[in-house]
Amino acid sequence: MTLREQREIETDVYQPAEDSQLLAEAACARLPADEDQLVLEVGTGSGYVAGRIAAETPVRVIASDLNPHAVREARGEGVETVRADLVAPFADGTFDAVAFNPPYLPTDPENEWDDWMEHALSGGEDGRAVIDPFLENVGRVLAPDGVVYLLVSSLTGVDEVVERAGEEGFSAVAVADESFPFETLTVLKLFR
Ligand SMILES: C[S@@+](CC[C@H](N)C(=O)[O-])C[C@H]1O[C@@H](n2cnc3c(N)ncnc32)[C@H](O)[C@@H]1O
């Protein structure tokens, strides 16, 4: 990797944080010990969550991200990663589970900044600008008994996300949470 590529990764790729850890732990603890299972991590960033799933479970993991620098970093970590907008390129009914730690911070449009880190952090005005289209589309790529592990924050509105998921035919249960001074992070398991 060139120095320029290394600098782009450091400034343009979301590095693992408490939300990444909570999602990785929740998913690893619940994925079946079955090497035939196929799991997608959407928005993989550094590849941390997908890498932990690959290391701690027998399932096969594929990852996606819109950010080309993230795709490069995740591939460098050994994660099979494709550049994609959410689940767009994947075939119907493909995945037994999909995990996503989305951009979820509500952001005043006046304060939006136009770079890859904004794509990693900003969920638009209500925090759900990426979560809503994800919920609309993820059902298409799930196998009939497939499940979703979705990280959400109290800043994003957990009830609103659960309601939106319900409109797409999903039931939701909170399987992990962690509280911080300014927010509580929750991992929702969505199933049909
Ligand atoms: C909060 S970061 C999470 C990164 C990593 N999964 C983790 O937990 O450390 C959100 C990630 O979603 C990616 N992302 C944002 N919009 C996306 C989209 N429409 N399709 C695919 N990935 C997207 C960002 O580039 C970023 O890597």
From TrEMBL:
Entry GO MF terms: nucleic acid binding; protein methyltransferase activity; S-adenosylmethionine-dependent methyltransferase activity
GO biological process: methylation
Position of the signal peptide: none
Domain Methyltransferase, first and last residues per copy: 39-101
Keywords tagged on the record: Methyltransferase, S-adenosyl-L-methionine, Transferase
Protein family membership: Belongs to the eukaryotic/archaeal PrmC-related family.
NCBIfam families assigned to the protein according to its UniProt record, in alphabetical order: hemK_rel_arch (TIGR00537), PRK14968.1-1 (NF011527)
Protein name per Swiss-Prot or TrEMBL: Methyltransferase
